[in-house]
Automatic annotation (TrEMBL):
Native organism: Testicularia cyperi
CDD domains in the cross-refs: UBA_p47
Keywords assigned by UniProt, alphabetized: Coiled coil
InterPro entries in the record: UBA-like_sf, Ucp6/RUP1, UIM_dom
Bias kind Pro residues: ranges: 102-111
Transmembrane domains' residue ranges: none
Lineage of source species: Eukaryota, Fungi, Dikarya, Basidiomycota, Ustilaginomycotina
Protein name in UniProt: UBA domain-containing protein
Compositional bias segments (type: Low complexity): 50-83, 91-101
Pfam name, any one: UBA_4
UniProt-annotated stretches for the region Disordered: 39-121, 168-188, 382-403
Coiled-coil residue windows: 495-522
Length: 725
């Protein structure tokens, strides 16, 4: 569908349809390659015939002062071209440059302006056009900063930063309305159009603050942040990170996406880069997460748009969300970015404290155990032993054990054998016999779920994915097992052989069916029809040729029959081999489950915190609050659900069409404090300025609701509903 692909590229890059078609044809209609090609080598814009006004202006300028430059000055609001030899109204002789308004004049900019400067840099023209378009939709019309300010701003931005901002802004313009009600020269931002927010402004008692993406392409990113907040260790870590965010003196309209410290979400600080803030990028992201999680902990708002955090999202995350990539892939990219940045910031902060260069204010618990703990997200493991080793514990205690399996995310596979989280997790670690056991489990387990595609040799489809509210990792720990695998894994020598046989049979089947292009049986049938038709038409023109064609037809039929018989035999062998493998896998699963059910293996517990799934094209989050209640969040709406509904992922445990559960988060269940203690800990970990700004915003909410109630009482109407406030 070429028009749809063209529309997708124009939405992602902001180019016109001619350029989109050009890069798509150049990239063989591959959207991802076309986007990369557009930014690497921008295509030329279609040539336009010169308009009468531009031609007349050029001729007049050339006739009047042929010796002066013919460069066109920035257009004025009156539409008149100033004299060529006169300095522009905003010319700054001391700085040697222009400080012309970067915001366009009232009304849309002219679309027939022709570049007479002789500048052939199409990429630069494109960036300027996109910047002007964004500023027209996002800013009040004010003048540009001075030359010195510009030197510290966009001029110093890296090319990757500019491309990321352009990509995000271009996608954003196709998903949300950027217009608001102007009051006193400032705009009050509206919520994104894709949110289905009802009339409730204050969050319900015990409910979480719903996180919403600034546009639909980043729904997965918002859901991952919602899940990380639901896990208490990661929530406290992000809130306790230091140094504190210095922008949080004002949080007006922060819940709508406004940048902290500004009165609107649509100001130029929306694209405030790391270089403009003059802080390292990992610290910048950590501070934004601190502000977001603090707001979620104390705010009485029912909703918060994550624009401040998503503004730093990598371009690949935005692009994958726009091209409908699998949600588990988008979540993986986003989590990698978050955890890597937070780890770098924690490492640098720890080094600074150790060297005495920085001293953070005292907080209620040791900072090392709150947000700089390397075990917060990362689990370490190593290969298990096939036979008992008397020196295994000594090796473990000495620290010489090779812990080369550190990871902050574990991908599991839901198939016909493993249909619960514990079994999927054990299989992912052990790899069905290769044997990896955990040495240092993370406090927060992020688990990405992939669903096996339909198997031709298995009937019944995928069973529903069962998500346990609590899992125990004792049976997966290297210490508890003394480094040994399961007995069924140790004694089984047939599994590697069966896997090798299965691989060879699958290779054979691919050759019989046809690895690329059309199926071999279809090609053979066409060959048979060809020889049969030609043998009839040959007649007596060429008796030898006719005889050969008649002989070829039955020979081809024999070949086709042999291929079909060989394919059927290969399928039967594959089915039997797969059945034997699944039987052995089920034996391992049952043995591991029986072992894990023993009371002595139930000490290291992990509680379910969040379940993310995709339902009817929308991302839905099921999160658990500190009081044990479960809530469903989708499109900005929040509603209470039961634990059974949450563990079933809305009844869609998994399917092969991309819907169903794609992410679960568990947190270590040791000494979880009461709800009141959690709230008190959160407040004490927050910076004072942030806490005060959130309290001020809560007072603003109370005033808004009071004004709304008074307005409804004064002018009652059938549409007013005070119960929704």
């Amino acid at each position: 569908d070429h028009p749809a692909l063209i529309q997708q590229v124009t939405g992602l890059t902001g180019c016109n349809e001619f350029q989109a078609q050009f890069v798509l044809e150049r990239s063989n209609w591959n959207v991802e390659r076309a986007i990369n090609s557009f930014f690497d080598d921008p295509p030329p814009e279609p040539s336009l015939p010169p308009t009468t006004s531009a031609t007349t202006a050029t001729a007049t300028a050339t006739t009047t002062t042929p010796s002066t430059s013919t460069a066109v000055a920035p257009y004025s609001t009156s539409g008149q071209i100033p004299p060529i030899n006169a300095p522009p109204p905003s010319y700054n002789s001391s700085s040697g440059g222009y400080s012309a308004p970067i915001g366009p004049p009232p009304g849309p900019p002219p679309r027939d302006t022709i570049d007479l400067t002789g500048d052939d840099d199409a990429d630069e023209d494109l960036k300027k056009a996109m910047a002007a378009s964004l500023l027209d939709a996002q800013q009040p019309r004010n003048t540009a900063p001075t030359t010195d300010q510009m030197t510290n701003g966009d001029v110093t931005m890296s090319e990757d930063e500019q491309l990321r901002q352009a990509l995000e802004a271009s996608v954003q313009s196709h998903h949300e309305s950027m217009h608001g009600n102007e009051t006193g020269g400032a705009r009050t931002p509206l919520l994104p159009q894709h949110l289905e927010v009802g009339g409730r402004s204050r969050r319900q008692i015990g409910a979480p603050v719903a996180l919403a993406a600034p546009f639909a392409s980043l729904e997965v990113a918002a859901a991952v942040l919602q899940a990380l907040f639901a896990a208490l260790p990661s929530r406290l870590a992000f809130i306790a990170s230091r140094p504190a965010d210095t922008r949080t003196t004002e949080l007006t309209n922060y819940w709508k996406g406004a940048i902290p410290g500004t009165s609107t979400a649509l100001s130029s600080s929306m694209y405030q880069t790391q270089s403009q803030r003059d802080v390292p990028a990992p610290m910048d992201l950590s501070q934004r997460l601190q502000t977001l999680f603090s707001f979620m902990a104390l705010s009485q708002r029912s909703l918060c748009v994550i624009r401040d955090v998503s503004a730093l999202a990598p371009a690949e995350v935005v692009a994958r969300g726009a091209d409908n990539s699998p949600p588990v892939r988008i979540a993986t990219l986003w989590l990698d970015f978050l955890i890597d940045s937070f780890r770098k910031h924690a490492t640098s902060a720890t080094d600074a404290v150790a060297s005495g260069k920085v001293v953070f204010e005292q907080i209620i618990v040791d900072v090392e155990t709150v947000w700089t703990d390397p075990r917060l997200f990362h689990s370490s493991g190593t290969l298990a032993l096939s036979t008992p080793d008397p020196n295994a514990q000594r090796t473990r205690d000495s620290g010489s054990l090779n812990q080369d399996r550190s990871r902050h995310l574990i991908h599991v596979r839901h198939d016909t054998v493993n249909a619960d989280i514990y079994s999927c997790l054990r299989t992912a670690l052990a790899s069905d016999g290769e044997g990896v056991l955990l040495t240092e489990p993370a406090k927060v387990l992020n688990i990405g779920v992939e669903h096996a595609p339909g198997n031709l040799f298995e009937t019944g489809g995928l069973p529903p994915l069962r998500i346990e509210e609590r899992i125990h990792l004792d049976s997966l720990m290297w210490d508890r097992r003394q480094g040994l695998r399961l007995p069924s894994e140790q004694d089984d020598t047939d599994m590697p052989k069966l896997k090798h046989v299965l691989e060879e049979l699958q290779k054979r089947r691919r050759k019989l069916v046809g690895e690329a292009g059309r199926a071999s049986t279809e090609l053979l049938n066409e060959s048979i029809r060809y020889f049969r038709d030609n043998s009839r038409s040959a007649g007596s023109v060429d008796a030898v040729r006719a005889s050969m064609l008649k002989e070829a037809t039955p020979q081809m039929e024999k070949i086709l029959s042999a291929v079909q018989e060989e394919l059927a035999a290969t399928d039967a062998l594959i089915s039997r081999t797969q059945s034997r493998i699944n039987q052995k896998r089920r034996l391992m699963r049952e043995q591991a489950r029986q072992e894990a059910e023993r009371p002595e293996w139930k000490e290291l517990g992990y509680d379910l915190c969040a379940v993310l799934c995709q339902e009817l094209g929308r991302v839905t989050s099921y999160v658990k609050q500190a009081d044990g209640s479960w809530w469903k969040l989708s499109g900005g709406e929040v509603e209470p659900v039961t634990a059974e509904e949450a563990t079933k992922g809305g009844g869609r445990g998994g399917s092969t069409d991309g819907s169903g559960v794609f992410w679960v988060v568990y947190a270590q269940a040791d000494s979880r404090p009461p709800t009141q203690t959690v709230a008190a800990t959160e407040e004490q970990l927050m910076p004072d300025e942030t806490r005060q700004a959130i309290e001020d915003d809560n007072l603003t909410l109370e005033s808004e609701l009071l004004s709304l109630i008074q307005s409804d009482v004064a002018t009652p109407s059938a549409s007013s509903n005070i119960d929704n406030i």
